[in-house]
Amino acid sequence: MRSTALTVAALSACVLLAACGAPVQDARPTVRIAEAVQPSPARALDKILPTHEELSVLGPNGMMGQRVQGGPNMLLASVGVAEATPADCVSPTYQLQRVVYDAGPVQSVASQSWAGGTFDAPPVSGLFGVVQFSSEADAQAFFADAAEKWHRCNGQALVLNQPDHGAQRTSRITDVTVDGHLVSAMVMQDSGSMSQRALGVAADCVVDVEVSDINGLGGPQGASTVARLMLAKVGAA
Description:
Blueprint: H1 2-17, E1 63-70, E2 84-85, H2 90-93, H3 98-101, E3 106-118, E4 121-133, H4 136-153, E5 157-160, E6 169-179, E7 182-189, E8 194-202, E9 205-213, H5 221-236
Antiparallel strand pairs: 1-3, 2-5, 3-4, 4-9, 5-6, 6-7, 7-8, 8-9
């Protein structure tokens, strides 16, 4: 009896003191801070742009234009998303547009123009750009989305309505080809001029190429050739 009484007393004391060796549980919520994803190291994008010698594939006696390099503000803002119909077709028609690249986290941009030709050959001009994204995954996702849009826009006409810049302009997109990490197209303006377009991805960079010939071009081979040269430089770096 005495033993039983002592046991009951001990248990009662445990209940009253809420102890008996049991750990005290902290009811406060635990806050966990996830480590932020670090952006890709900055690249020397000017090393990815084509050289004067590499652009000889487009024509002789070419002259390089001024190089432009900086952050996302270096993207062009000549087309507003509300000014183009259908808006998804801005990407294959107009190069390096801010409304296109706003879809991804752009880290840096570099571009350079070029012009070539002789008395015996039609004048040719080009604009070559490279855009570095915050990560390889961001660049790959941007390219996949852009390639799908280019494919959907094949055979379509993009109408650009900018009352402050004169009459309405129409561009027709044709010959869209998706080849692995490269998509190419031809764009015919209502003025009759033609442009070759190519867009490619390697690592965390997207290259954006346009080659124009006022006398018309047979296909986007020139733009694709230069784009592949640029992509190879990304891979080598």
